[in-house]
Amino acid sequence: MKKEPGTTKEPKDQLTGSCLCGAVSFSIVGDPVAQLLCFCSDCRRISGADAYAAYVVPRPALTLKTGTPTSYTVTAASGRVNKRNFCGTCGSRLWADLEMGLASVSGTALSDPEIFKPTMVHCESDAPTWARIPEQMESLPPTS
What we know:
Strand order of the largest sheet: 6-7-8-9-4-3-10-11
Structural class: mainly beta
CATH topology: Metal Binding Protein, Guanine Nucleotide Exchange Factor, Chain A
């Protein structure tokens, strides 16, 4: 999105986010494809909780603003390859580049925590018995 010369304001529909220490920051333009809580074992491990808050956007909508994230590539149980990006300084989870051209941004990395409003759950059959699965949310079927 092009800025007018002499302005410093960000576009109205642009969201921002960063890691805990602020070394890595990003912006997102446009609406999410999905907002969900993922209960797969990989997402639980990286989130340190019963589910991962996934704010899913088309990968071109996500722009790195400052810093350089560290990444780790993992093959998910589905067989898809995910490149997980995080801050190499503070360890904050930022986003995963997904094979299908999407970015799964950590809803907790968004500057305004009220932006993340999950409407679906994913891989809830993988959740431990103590997980808090919102029964009222639609289930996103596993992809293969």
